[in-house]
Amino acid sequence: MAIARAKNIGISAKKLRLVMDEVRGMKVDDALAYLRYMTSPSAGEIFKVLHAAAANAENNDLQDREALVIKRIVADQTVTMKRFRPKARGRAGAFNRPTALITIEDFRLGISADWRSNWFAGKPDGYRELVQEDYQIREIVAREYQGEGAISRVDIDRGGGEISINVFTSRPGIIIGRNGQRIDRLRHLIERSTGRRVRISANEIKVPELDAKLVGQSLAEQLERRIPYRRAVRMSMQRTMDSGAEGIKVVVSGRLGGAEIARVDKQMEGRVPLHTLRAKIDYAVSEAYTTFGVIGIKVWIFTGDMPAEGRLQREGNSGVSPIGLGRAPRHRR
């Protein structure tokens, strides 16, 4: 696990993403060697962040450098700076120069969280195809049960020429349907899209108040029904704490209450230790589509620390150490 981030890079996020697509999923040493000989300016910026993440893993966390892999790396657009380009006769032309934010994620994979997709690409260029196929599968599931399935997440396993899909929901009856009609229809749609044999199972979430995705979806539905956002957030947080959570944090952003100027509202109850790796923290992002625009909702739920024996077993079974998301130490970039 490592932490690295670079802000206000003088390159557009689109150009950075083109290079990131080439190294995503590679081992860190292989990615550094690949980036070192690329002529694109984007490669140099990504090389710096990746090198800093690897150094932090070695020095701060005593990780094995050869076991580090890039699980997720993203670039987001940040501020746009106004600049001037010189012209003839002492004139200058104004232009906008975009900047970007590079983030290398995932923080708790292999420690207190597991992967949502479990498979290995059989050929060198198969990784990209399978990632795109997983995205299409999740889109089909979301579209089939839009607004009624209360789906938290979709886990995908591959093996033996078969795709195993585990749907985690608080309403398994809706997923299955009468006499299994809806789940059979879903299986047919996915098989037609992928061309592979598919097996689907619906797993019930016993306590939906402790699931960040379901809490975020509930908040989004309330905001779309024009319930005051403060009351909706306060009631959702209270239900989560009453269900046994040790802490919850909710961030709502957008034109709250129909205000002309968008703002961000943050509320927290209990404690949410985001940088304690043994902490079991569920995180999810949802969106509410209101008449005033889109309102973003982020939810963090802390349900307690992992037992020591379970944490050691998970770390021992993990063959690689993922690069993580977080704020880099001040003495490193």
TrEMBL record:
Biological processes, Gene Ontology terms: translation
InterPro entries: KH_dom, KH_dom-like_a/b, KH_dom_type_2, KH_sf_prok-type, Ribosomal_S3_C_sf, Ribosomal_uL22, Ribosomal_uL22_bac/chlpt-type, Ribosomal_uL22_sf
Keyword Ribosomal protein: yes
Region (Disordered): 311-333
A GO CC annotation given for this chain: cytosolic small ribosomal subunit
GO molecular function ontology, one term from the record: rRNA binding
Gene3D superfamilies: 3.30.300.20, Ribosomal protein L22/L17 (3.90.470.10), Ribosomal protein S3, C-terminal domain (3.30.1140.32)
Keywords: Ribonucleoprotein, Ribosomal protein, RNA-binding, rRNA-binding
Residue ranges of domain KH type-2 in the record: 137-206
Presence of the UniProt keyword Nucleotide-binding in the record: no
Classification via HAMAP family: Ribosomal_uL22_B, Ribosomal_uS3_B
PANTHER family, sorted: 30S/40S RIBOSOMAL PROTEIN S3, SMALL RIBOSOMAL SUBUNIT PROTEIN US3C
Family per similarity comment: Belongs to the universal ribosomal protein uS3 family.
NCBIfam families reported in the protein's UniProt record: rplV_bact (TIGR01044), rpsC_bact (TIGR01009)
Name recorded for this polypeptide: Large ribosomal subunit protein uL22c
Organism this protein belongs to: Geodia barretti
